[in-house]
């Protein structure tokens, strides 16, 4: 045995000081390797739609309902199983409703408590059966950890324990804690049903409650996030990127979500409101429309919201022109359009064609220097930057996204990313120049991620500035892996009626992702076996109405964006896809639109999702087959070396 190996084993012996401790840990880890693999849950493109998100999180994309069916089968009637499911999903709402109903009908609430606690105990046992007792105990709620532990591990069918077991439930009811216990057990069932959550990008923009989604994600027991282009935009804004701040505000104004910034994140919009109101006197609503849920939006605010949208858009176009000038290597000169406006003719030149402008009211644009901010615009952006970078809640959320997130992730044999791997027409990886060096494939992802982290964390002003610019590039760059289009036609969509310039050509990835050789090459680039791995993708909604399928390339690639955002649902025809990866295989489900939690609870309408694809494994997956299992096997190998060293006398037991 080499000296360095022996030195390491001596360090390890401090944790396992003798043969007994070492052997016990080997037995423990080997046993864990043979447990079934934990269930993974994949969602993407939430876009602030909190109720839809929460519903899918509460029912675990149908996993809870499946467990109820497995546990009770025909022994419990369908109405009772539906009530139990709704109780598990929404105990804070359903439980008071049931208590009121039972007390008004027959008053036998104690009997209902007893039956419900017993059924929830069975559900907890079933959903926790693939975990070690140690992991289960660590998951138990503090107030009821002893009680639930006894219920889960007791044996009421054994004569010596029957009275003891039943008395636990009786005592809980008599002490008035039944409601709290039931609520905690419902949460526990959901906790055990899903071992790990993957969010494949785009938590922010369009929908009204991304902050609530973030609060839930931060409370989740195990989660990772693959950054989407809309997440990157908010990350850049929180880091202090002026151009990302402008884009964030413009989109929020367009979708009537400025209250997210003001009320949820405490962003001071008064300087922008004042500037917009004073600068843009003419009506702006026809061009800078506000897309809002009419039930929840007061149209009296539409005028000022559209003026704010215009004001911040003009600042955005100016700042974007400045970035393009700083980075000619990004080949985005076609995004500089303010200098192509003919102020006398009222037209703009795009390529070789001149188009009439729908709006020519630009009091802050100097035709001789169109990309320079006016003094008033500079003041506005300075105020906004200060507000974004000092928002405590925003920084808390974005810090979490950085800690739990990345541009891509390889996990248990699957490759997760939000957008695409930039390709050339022939399917080869496209080379992209980033700060003097060229990158492609996996290396492109990694350099962009590192630069983004520099933009948020670095204290070096040069590295910080480079990172801040890279946020904008990742958001809409022509070779950005999370955007995946040649241009973002924001200017054209606002100011040109002709639909031709509105087109945003996609990267060849989207015409090649049915090609097995291309997807195999991508998987291999990220170190995965082309025979067994999958790409799990979001970003571009699957248009179900037109017969499009989320299953691409013979099941090797799964696009699970199907319209979570209400803004997309008329176009897509459903409300998104989610993916479950359990020990038996993959289950891809399509979800109908979710009306509201209140309606679901009152009517007990369990929204039925459609199974789009089931892909079973050749054999049931164990912990040993996972990334965690590979780490545990390495630990076992080292412990076995330590055990050998003890028995050979190379290390003395303590």
Strand element count: 17
What percent of residues are in strands? 5-15%
- Spatial sequence of strands, sheet with the most strands: 7-3-2-1-15-16-17
User: Approximately how much helix is present in the residues?
Assistant: 40-55%
Number of helices: 27
The mean pLDDT is 91
User: Major sheet: size, sense and barrel closure?
Assistant: 7 strands, mixed
Cα-atom radius of gyration: 28 Å
Q: What is the straight-line distance between the termini?
A: 21 Å
Structural class: alpha/beta
Global morphology:
globular
Which spans have pLDDT < 50 for at least 5 consecutive residues?
none
Account of the protein in words:
This protein is α/β, with parallel strands linked by helices and 654 residues long. Helices cover 51% and strands 10% of the residues. The protein has 27 helices and 17 strands. Strands 7-3-2-1-15-16-17 form a seven-stranded mixed β-sheet. Helix 4 (63-72) packs across helix 5 and helix 7 runs parallel beside helix 11.
Task: Outline the fold blueprint.
Layout: H1 3-13, H2 19-33, E1 40-43, H3 50-59, H4 63-72, H5 78-89, H6 91-105, H7 109-128, H8 133-139, H9 145-153, H10 159-174, H11 178-193, E2 196-199, H12 210-219, E3 223-226, H13 229-239, H14 242-254, H15 258-264, H16 270-279, H17 302-326, E4 341-342, E5 347-350, E6 353-356, H18 375-389, H19 392-404, E7 405-406, E8 408-411, E9 414-417, E10 432-434, E11 437-439, H20 441-457, H21 461-476, H22 490-495, H23 509-512, H24 516-525, E12 534-537, E13 551-552, E14 557-559, H25 566-572, E15 577-581, E16 585-590, H26 597-603, E17 610-616, H27 627-648
Parallel strand pairs: 1-2, 2-3, 3-7, 9-12, 12-14
Antiparallel strand pairs: 1-15, 4-5, 5-6, 8-9, 10-11, 13-14, 15-16, 16-17
Helix pairs in contact: 1-27, 2-27, 4-5, 5-6, 7-9, 7-11, 13-14, 13-20, 13-21, 14-17, 16-17, 20-21
């Amino acid at each position: 045995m080499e000296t360095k190996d022996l030195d390491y084993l001596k360090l390890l012996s401090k944790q396992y000081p003798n043969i007994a401790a070492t052997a016990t840990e080997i037995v423990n880890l080997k046993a864990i390797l043979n447990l079934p693999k934990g269930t993974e849950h994949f969602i993407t493109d939430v876009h602030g739609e909190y109720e839809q998100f929460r519903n899918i999180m509460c029912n675990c994309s149908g996993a809870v309902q499946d467990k109820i069916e497995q546990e009770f089968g025909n022994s419990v009637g369908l109405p009772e199983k539906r009530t139990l499911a709704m109780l598990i999903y929404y105990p804070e709402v359903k439980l008071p409703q049931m208590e009121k109903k039972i007390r008004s009908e027959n008053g036998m609430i104690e009997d209902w408590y007893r039956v419900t606690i017993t059924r929830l105990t069975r559900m907890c046992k079933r959903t926790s059966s693939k975990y070690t007792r140690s992991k289960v105990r660590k998951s138990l709620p503090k107030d009821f950890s002893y009680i639930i532990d006894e219920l889960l591990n007791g044996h009421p069918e054994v004569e010596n324990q029957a009275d003891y077991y039943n008395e636990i439930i009786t005592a809980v009811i008599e002490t008035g804690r039944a409601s709290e216990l039931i609520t905690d057990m419902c949460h526990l069932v959901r906790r055990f049903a899903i071992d790990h959550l993957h969010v494949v990008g785009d938590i922010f923009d369009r929908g009204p409650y991304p902050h609530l989604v973030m609060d839930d994600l931060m409370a989740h027991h195990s989660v990772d996030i693959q950054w989407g282009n809309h997440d990157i935009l908010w990350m850049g804004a929180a880091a202090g990127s002026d151009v990302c701040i402008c884009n964030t505000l413009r989109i929020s104004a367009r979708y009537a979500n400025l209250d997210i910034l003001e009320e949820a994140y405490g962003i001071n919009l008064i300087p922008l409101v004042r500037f917009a109101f004073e600068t843009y006197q003419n009506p702006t609503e026809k061009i800078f429309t506000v897309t809002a849920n009419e039930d929840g939006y007061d149209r009296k605010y539409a005028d000022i919201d559209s003026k704010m949208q215009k004001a911040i858009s003009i600042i955005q176009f100016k700042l974007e022109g400045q970035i393009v000038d700083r980075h000619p290597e990004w080949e985005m000169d076609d995004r500089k359009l303010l200098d192509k406006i003919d102020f006398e003719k009222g037209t703009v030149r795009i390529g070789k064609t001149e188009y009439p402008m729908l709006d020519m009211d630009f009091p802050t644009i100097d035709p001789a220097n169109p990309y320079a901010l006016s003094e008033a615009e500079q003041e506005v952006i300075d105020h906004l930057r200060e507000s974004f970078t000092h928002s405590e809640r925003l920084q808390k959320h974005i810090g979490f996204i950085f800690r739990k997130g990345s541009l891509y992730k390889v996990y248990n044999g699957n490759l997760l990313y939000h957008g695409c791997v930039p390709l050339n027409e022939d399917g080869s990886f496209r080379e992209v120049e980033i700060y003097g060096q060229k990158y492609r494939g996996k290396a492109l992802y990694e350099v962009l991620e590192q630069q983004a982290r520099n933009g948020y964390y670095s204290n070096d002003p040069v590295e910080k500035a480079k990172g801040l610019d890279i946020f904008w590039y990742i958001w809409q760059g022509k070779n950005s892996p999370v955007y995946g289009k040649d241009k973002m036609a924001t200017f054209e969509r606002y100011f040109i009626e002709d639909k031709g310039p509105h087109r945003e050509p996609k990267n060849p990835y989207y015409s090649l992702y049915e090609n097995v050789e291309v997807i195999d090459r991508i998987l291999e680039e990220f170190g995965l076996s082309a025979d067994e791995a999958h790409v799990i993708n979001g970003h571009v909604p699957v248009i179900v109405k037109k017969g499009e399928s989320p299953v691409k390339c013979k099941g090797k690639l799964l696009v699970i964006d199907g319209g979570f955002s209400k803004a997309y649902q008329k176009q897509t025809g459903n409300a998104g896809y989610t993916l479950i990866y359990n020990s038996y295989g993959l289950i891809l489900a399509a979800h109908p639109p979710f009306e509201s939690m209140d309606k679901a609870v009152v009517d007990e309408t369990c929204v039925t999702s459609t199974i789009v694809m089931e892909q079973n494994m050749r054999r049931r997956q164990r912990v040993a087959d996972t990334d965690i299992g590979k780490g545990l096997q390495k630990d076992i190998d080292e412990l076995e070396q330590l055990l050998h060293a003890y028995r050979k006398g190379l290390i003395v037991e303590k």
